[in-house]
Each structure stands twice: as structure tokens, then as C-alpha cells.
Design a protein that fits this description.
Elements (H helix, E strand, L loop, with lengths): L1 E8 L3 H11 L9 E9 L6 H7 L5 E3 L2 H5 L6 E4 L6 H10 L3 E4 L7 H13 L5 E3 L7 H11 L6 E10 L15 H4 L4 H16 L1 E11 L4 E3 L5 E3 L5 E10 L5 E9 L7 E9 L2 E6 L5 E6 L7 E5 L18 H18 L12 H20 L3 E2 L1
Parallel strand pairs: 1-2, 1-4, 2-3, 4-5, 5-6, 7-12
Antiparallel strand pairs: 7-13, 8-11, 8-17, 9-10, 11-12, 13-14, 14-15, 15-16
The structure holds nicotinamide-adenine-dinucleotide.
């Protein structure tokens, strides 16, 4: 069993999810590589006790990311910090020779992502991937298998999205994800967009142009100290794209929706693929239910399939049991470590987001900002 010693930089919401996945590694009986957390870094000292209390392997605790990166014992890092820090922290990690799983959007904007991409190119021996767990739900894996088998026939339409609704509460205090300085001009696109792009991009469904409608619904929010402050970022984004199937070169419409104010949706991932031979649709709202329509001739009927627990990376959980968010995170981490160790994921849809896929998402989101501004379709 290869052990990869990890440092975590940014120990908030997502840092904890990674640590919890490390604690559950025994769930994955066929993995021949496993992570061990040896170092943690956050500027908020209050967060660190949970880690040191639960992970006796941690030897280094610091508030300075450069100190962590100077630690020779650390082979790889997970970085989950606000978007304005991505370029600086990711490049420093890569330059220090640490393998990196970095959080999306992988740079606050396209120039920042370009800097990271350049740095990756200069350090080909460092393994770098972007976090996005959306394909690791069993239904998404099944859709991935259908894509691999080219079961859909000619693609007629693809709709992919990620919807939240907690921002419908106008009294929710502001946080960094609603501030331009930390979250960037992309707003909800930077926060949610990579998840919605992951499956289509991996399928080779490449947007050629975009017509975007962006909405700023909440103009100000409580600052948590009795006052109100401007809420500057885009709340909702709907992208209408002309996409090309890389394999057949056929064109079709694709929508990517990322919304923070989607009434009734706490945290909904969805993907719908309509094709001449097969169609499939799944939403995490009914996490265990995959709908498939196979058409030969005659009646067209949707089958409703309970997907259970068939994971990309074998899990000890019984095959009949439904999967959840933390399972998809564990699977994503298995994907990162498997590919780091073996050099290639076991199947195309069992791999984390690659740097060129992230770069494509930045092209799309930047073009979407321009499209909305000009009220026009932007080709790229
Ligand atoms: N994959 C997912 O499903 C998912 C979900 C939520 C957030 N994210 C992404 O994860 C990243 C972090 O988001 P989060 O929700 O965990 O945010 P968070 O605010 O909970 O955590 C960020 C942490 O970074 C720390 N930090 C800030 N400046 C720092 C510095 N200079 N040095 C060290 N630590 C510093 C903060 O103290 C905080 O603890 C973002 O890129 C976000 O887009 C991904």
C-alpha cells in the first residue's frame, strides 16, 4: 500500500470533507494507495482543533502556507481557500513539487487560471487535478458508461446544472462567496459551474458559443454586525450553448445552469442527455433514481432504475444502498489518488477534472460574462 502524505491548506468546509474522507478510507477495499494527513494550515486557528483531535498523524500545524509547502514530508496538498488566493497558492504548491488537488474554479478568473496553467506546463512531473465530485454519484457513472458505449446515438440536447436555494433568504448574512474581491466576477459560475461542466466536457461535448443570461437578484445583505453591505456577485446564470460532439462533430444545443436562488433546490446536481437511440436523466433530488429511454422503434417509454451503490471505486457498502454527498467526495479522492499512483484513471468518467477541462470552463465563463454584457452570442 502506497501512502501519500498530505497537507491541507484551507481547513474550512471542504478541508473537513477531505479529512473525513481520509478517515473513511477503509471503505475502499481495493485501493492500493491511501492518503495520510501530516500537515494542516489555516489562518483561522479555531478550526484546527477538530483536525488535531481527530487525526493523530498531523505533525505540523501552521497559519503560513509557505511553511507547509517547505515541509519535505508533504508529498501532496489539498488547497481549499477563497478564489482570490488560488493562483498564488496553487502555483507555489506546484513550484514546491507538491502534487495538487485544488478547488474549483481554479483561479478567480481567466487570467489567474492562465497563470496556473502555465505553471502546470512548466512542471510536468507534478500531478494536478481540480476538485469536482459530481460524476462520482452512481447514476452519473452509469450515464458515463452509456456515453463510452456511444449508446445515445446522435446527441439531440444536453442539459446540465447545479442549483442552490439558500440565498433565497434575503436575510442570510454575507460571506466571502458573495464578494467580488474574494469570489470574483464569475459569481455563481465560479462557485457552481465546474460541477455542471465536468460530465459534458469529459464526454467531449464542447461549447462553441454561448448566450448567457445572468441575474443579480439580491442587491445587499446583512453584514452580520447590524448593518447592510452590497451583495455584488451574480446569483443565477443560465448559459445557452451551441455544443459540438468531439467524436461525431455533430452540433446540438446544451444548457448549463448554475443558480444560487433556485426555489426548492437545496443542492441539486442534474444531467439530462437526449439522443436518437437513448436518452437519460438524473437529478440528485432523487439520488437513487436514473431514468433511461432506449428507442429502437415503436413506443417510447422511460425506465426508472434504482442505481444503488455501484461506485467507480469499489466500496464496502452493500450494492443495494443509496449513495450520498460524502460518498461522492470519497470517490473523488479515490480518483485523485488512483490516477496519481497508476498514471491513468480506470475509466474515463472515473477521473478528476483535468487542467485543460478547467481552462475550457474559464473560456466558457469569461465568454458568458461578455455575452451577458453585450446581450449577444459570443463564439470562442
Ligand atoms: N467541491 C465542492 O463541492 C465545493 C464545495 C464548497 C466549496 N468549494 C470550494 O472550496 C474552496 C473553499 O471553500 P470552502 O467552502 O471550504 O470555504 P471556507 O470559507 O469554509 O474555507 C476556506 C478556508 O480558507 C482559510 N483561509 C483563508 N485565507 C487563508 C490563508 N491566507 N491561508 C490559509 N488559509 C486561509 C479560511 O480561514 C477558511 O477556513 C473554494 O474554492 C470553493 O469554491 C468546493
Amino acid at each position: 500500500m502506497r501512502i501519500v502524505k498530505f497537507g491541507i491548506i484551507g481547513c474550512g468546509l471542504m478541508g473537513r470533507e477531505f479529512a473525513s474522507a481520509v478517515a473513511r478510507w477503509c471503505h475502499l477495499p481495493e485501493m492500493d494507495v491511501k492518503p495520510e494527513i501530516v500537515a494542516i494550515c489555516d489562518t483561522n486557528a479555531k478550526l484546527l482543533e477538530w483536525y488535531t483531535g481527530n487525526f493523530p498523524t498531523i505533525k505540523q500545524v501552521t497559519n503560513d502556507y509557505k511553511t507547509l509547502l517547505a515541509n519535505d514530508e508533504v508529498e501532496a496538498v489539498y488547497i481549499a481557500v477563497p478564489h482570490n488566493l488560488h493562483a498564488e497558492f496553487y502555483c507555489a504548491a506546484i513550484e514546491a513539487g507538491k502534487h495538487l488537488l485544488g478547488e474549483k474554479p481554479f483561479g478567480i478568473d481567466k487570467p489567474a487560471n492562465d497563470i496556473i496553467s502555465d505553471c502546470i506546463r512548466k512542471h510536468p512531473n507534478v500531478f494536478v487535478r481540480c476538485s469536482s465530485e459530481s460524476p462520482f454519484f452512481p447514476a452519473m457513472q452509469k450515464i458515463g458508461k452509456l456515453i463510452e458505449k456511444q449508446a445515445f446515438g446522435q446527441i439531440l440536447e444536453v442539459n446540465s446544472g447545479f442549483l442552490h436555494s439558500s440565498d433565497l433568504d434575503f436575510n442570510k448574512p454575507i460571506n466571502w462567496k458573495r464578494m467580488l474581491k474574494f469570489n470574483g466576477e464569475y459569481g455563481c459560475l465560479g462557485d457552481l459551474g465546474m460541477h455542471a461542466c465536468h460530465m459534458p466536457f469529459r464526454a467531449g461535448w464542447i461549447p462553441k458559443n454561448v448566450s448567457a443570461i445572468l441575474s443579480k437578484i439580491v442587491k445587499e445583505r446583512p453584514d452580520g454586525k447590524g448593518g447592510m453591505v452590497p451583495c455584488e456577485t451574480w446569483d443565477n446564470a443560465t448559459l445557452f450553448c451551441l455544443a459540438e460532439d468531439d467524436a461525431s462533430k455533430q452540433l446540438f444545443p446544451m444548457t448549463i445552469k448554475t443558480q444560487r436562488i433556485a426555489p426548492g433546490h437545496k443542492n441539486t446536481w442534474y444531467l439530462e442527455v437526449l439522443g436518437t437511440k437513448t436518452s437519460a436523466r438524473w437529478s440528485s433530488k432523487q439520488i437513487n433514481t436514473l431514468e433511461i429511454l432506449e428507442y429502437a422503434s415503436g413506443e417510447q417509454g422511460w425506465q426508472v432504475i434504482d442505481v444503488g451503490h455501484e461506485m467507480a471505486y469499489k466500496s464496502i457498502t452493500g450494492i443495494i444502498f443509496e449513495a450520498g454527498f460524502s460518498d461522492s467526495i470519497l470517490q473523488m479522492w479515490a480518483a485523485f489518488l488512483y490516477e496519481l499512483h497508476h498514471g491513468i484513471p480506470p475509466t474515463p468518467f472515473a477521473g478528476c477534472v483535468m487542467p485543460d477541462e478547467v481552462a475550457l470552463s474559464h473560456k466558457l465563463f469569461t465568454s458568458a460574462l461578455e455575452s451577458h454584457k453585450k446581450s449577444s452570442t459570443v463564439a470562442f
